[in-house]
Design brief:
By secondary structure, the protein is an alpha/beta fold. It has helices at about 20-30, 40-45, 55-65, 70-75, 85, 200-210, 215, and strands at about 10, 35, 45-50, 80, 90-95, 110, 115-120, 130-140, 155-160, 160, 170-175, 175-185, 185-190. The protein has a nine-stranded mixed β-sheet with strand order 2-1-3-4-13-12-11-8-9.
């Protein structure tokens, strides 16, 4: 039996909730992982995970306070984002913006790694947040998505989403189509929660953790 190479894996401590559940999901697959906001540890990791529950405004405030912006923007190893973690990879988000009269700011600057923006989900009258199981409507070929197909179910909890774009690797529909997975170079983000999506969510995490870095170079 061929032994799978173990990489050093890091979950970035963004100061948001959900860190422990992501850690447990990784460990259930037999991998080790460390939660940290230490810049040198993050830079030295083989694989990096951006978790996320909460608002983009709060998460970006934490990332800025921890001095992590430049480090995260310049990672060259494979990076996987979960839910808010995916949204933080984009150019900007309107989540968390105050509608108080006189406010001049209409979006939150995110990490600007993947040039798309996060906007309110156009649910066409469906209840928000979009919460629960839903299927993928398109799936691109990508090493992290090996074994994932159209009509596979994943668990979503969100009211904001990235629109379809050239960076969409998988889509979903809830009133309208939106990006369920986006990617650019070594960065991949899932709008759903892989850690809460059963065997198929675990499959995505495992694909990512077993990824050879050079697999992304040729994409």
């Amino acid at each position: 039996m061929t032994k799978v190479k173990q990489y050093s894996n890091i979950i970035v401590d963004t100061g948001c909730a959900n860190l422990s559940s992501v850690k447990f999901a990784v460990e259930r697959l037999g991998f080790t992982v460390t939660i940290t906001d230490d810049i040198e540890q993050i830079k030295a990791a083989d694989k990096v995970i951006f978790p996320g529950v909460g608002s983009a405004k709060h998460a970006m405030e934490n990332i800025i306070e921890k001095g992590l912006v430049e480090t995260l923007q310049n990672l060259t190893q494979p990076v996987l984002g979960f839910c808010l973690g995916m949204q933080l990879m984009t150019r900007s988000s309107t989540e968390g913006i105050s509608t108080t009269e006189g406010s001049q700011k209409n979006s939150i600057e995110c990490l600007n790694i993947i040039p798309t923006s996060v906007e309110p989900l156009n649910a066409q009258g469906n209840r928000l947040p979009h919460m629960g199981w839903n299927t993928l409507t398109t799936v691109a070929e990508h090493p992290v998505l090996k074994g994932i197909s159209v009509d596979d179910y994943f668990y979503f909890v969100h009211s904001f989403a990235a629109p379809l774009s050239e960076y969409t690797l998988a889509s979903c529909q809830y009133g309208s189509e939106f990006s369920a997975i986006i990617g650019k170079d070594n960065f991949i983000g899932c709008q759903f929660h892989p850690e809460r999506s059963g065997a198929l969510g675990s499959k995505i995490i495992q694909n990512f953790l077993e990824l050879e870095p050079q697999e992304l170079i040729s994409l």
